[in-house]
């Protein structure tokens, strides 16, 4: 059985939990991740989509060899995510994705080893983005059972933008650890479009989150994605209401553990114009947070977060040394991974 229950002394050793009686309690751990796939396109044209750069005669000369390398590379990174704590045979229970072209690319991805060995499946709804990139959710069916999948559209609020379409909010409800959870996977508008559009995204996701909680107050919700904004930007801190400190989280707010990761530790998920940004985030409703500090973990609770790094994800030489190793840079195929680094959070729950 793939579900792994860890004795608390193992968690003490790895995670540094220091205030719980190791002789009396056991915890089950779950890893949850997000990873921007940076243009996971197949080699065929999708009618109505602007995918011409990723065709054999396109600007990237995207062919079967490059596509197979891209699938292999992304599968390696996705399989490694979460294994700093979870066993290598398990990894993440669920992983949100952005910049995936279609269901064919997702099918090809989960058929790569070692993802195939874990039996990963995916949730995906074809979206309206004119370039053709969507969000998706990979999941291990032994750890997470989806019960509802819906793509809520990003609604344009300005009349002048009535013909502008972008990614919606992929919302997957299901059960994990015997509890009902919902994951909202996002890819908010580009920074080239101005802060207003991402703030609108934040407001709309907050409304969606509040509507889900109104229907089921016990639902535990994670909002994840490439927000194209840092944690302290208005779209996240004000529109979505994702707070920096647990003590500041009130009803209707969310908790954002990534704020201090960037502000204090100066660590991010993508490097641009000489500095790190942290656009890739996973934030939580209050019912997933240890609000009292008692570390009871009676229900599924956020425990730890990390920007997932491996040497192979980082450019080791040349002009872009130290940056995430992407698929292309400067018009050159680097046989890399993504211009973003993955993020992972760990959830724990006391085992009976």
Number of separate helices: 7
Largest sheet: 7 strands, mixed
How would you sum up the global shape? globular
Task: Give the SSE order as H and E letters.
Answer: EHEHEHHEEEEEHEHEEHEEEEEEE
User: What is the average per-residue confidence, as pLDDT, rounded to a whole number?
Assistant: 92
Describe this protein's structure.
With 352 residues, the protein is an alpha+beta fold. It contains 7 helices and 18 strands. The strands form 5 sheets. Strands 1, 2, 3, 4, 5, 15 and 18 form a 7-stranded mixed sheet that branches. Strands 6-7-8-9-14 form a 5-stranded mixed sheet, with helices on one face. Strand 8 (179-187), helix 5 (195-215) and strand 9 form a beta-alpha-beta unit. It starts with a strand and ends with a strand.
Short summary:
The protein is an alpha+beta fold. The chain is 20% helix and 29% strand. It contains 7 helices and 18 strands.
Descriptors:
7-stranded mixed β-sheet, disordered N terminus, alpha+beta, single chain, 5-stranded mixed β-sheet, globular, 352 residues
Protein topology:
Elements: E1 5-7, H1 8-15, E2 26-40, H2 64-80, E3 94-100, H3 103-110, H4 115-118, E4 121-124, E5 134-139, E6 145-152, E7 169-176, E8 179-187, H5 195-215, E9 220-226, H6 234-240, E10 242-243, E11 254-255, H7 258-263, E12 270-272, E13 275-277, E14 280-284, E15 301-307, E16 328-329, E17 332-333, E18 343-350
Parallel strand pairs: 2-3, 8-9, 10-11
Antiparallel strand pairs: 1-2, 2-18, 3-5, 4-5, 6-7, 7-8, 9-14, 12-13, 15-18, 16-17
Helix pairs in contact: 2-3, 5-6
